[in-house]
């Protein structure tokens, strides 16, 4: 006789509304972005864009590799990771495939590693279109129109973001 074991579904997020998104972005701009940009000496990125096609392809690869989740890390490009020199120093998002693992202390979401031509590597996805510098011009995303605020940069004046 075969015993069927129910797979426990773990969910951590939910859909949110426009007001929620606008609030998060405005708070980020006031409390983090202005200082990040000042320290960087140029406007830091505010968003990262990926096409649905490439996200679906990554998620399919992750699923086929045994992943049951994805962790999003905040990161910063350096001269070795920035494919575009304008990206250097700016923040980004990197997707890392994960798999739940039961531990004595509870469930942990561990990174998934795969075999590549170069050996074992983490299964991750990055290098989207960051804004700035890739925003606001013809054919580029304008950031979606969320969270526009006036930022007081102290002695450096005011800035609308």
Labels describing this entry:
4-stranded antiparallel β-sheet; alpha+beta; 22% helix; 30% strand; 161 residues
How would you characterize this protein structure?
By secondary structure, the chain is an alpha+beta fold. The chain has one domain (18-160). The protein is built from two helices and ten strands. It has helices at residues 18-40, 52-64; strands at residues 47-49, 69-76, 91-103, 106-111, 113-116, 119-122, 124-125, 129-131, 150-152, 158-160. The strands form four sheets. Strands 2, 3, 4 and 7 form a four-stranded antiparallel beta sheet that branches. A two-stranded antiparallel sheet has the order 1-8. The mean pLDDT is 84.
């Amino acid at each position: 006789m075969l015993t069927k074991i129910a797979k426990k579904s773990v969910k951590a997020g939910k859909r949110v509304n426009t007001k929620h998104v606008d609030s998060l972005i405005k708070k980020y701009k006031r409390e983090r972005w202005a200082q990040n940009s000042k320290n960087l000496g140029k406007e830091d990125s505010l968003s990262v864009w990926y096409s649905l096609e490439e996200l679906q392809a990554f998620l399919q690869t992750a699923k086929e590799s045994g992943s049951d989740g994805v962790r999003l890390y905040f990161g910063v490009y350096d001269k070795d990771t920035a494919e575009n020199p304008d990206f250097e120093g700016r923040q980004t998002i990197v997707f890392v495939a994960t798999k739940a693992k039961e531990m004595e202390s509870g469930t942990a979401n561990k990174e998934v590693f795969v075999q590549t031509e170069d050996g074992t590597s983490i299964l991750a996805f990055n290098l989207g279109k960051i804004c700035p510098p890739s925003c606001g011009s013809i054919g580029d995303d304008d950031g979606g129109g969320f969270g526009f605020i006036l930022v007081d940069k102290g002695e450096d004046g005011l800035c609308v973001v």
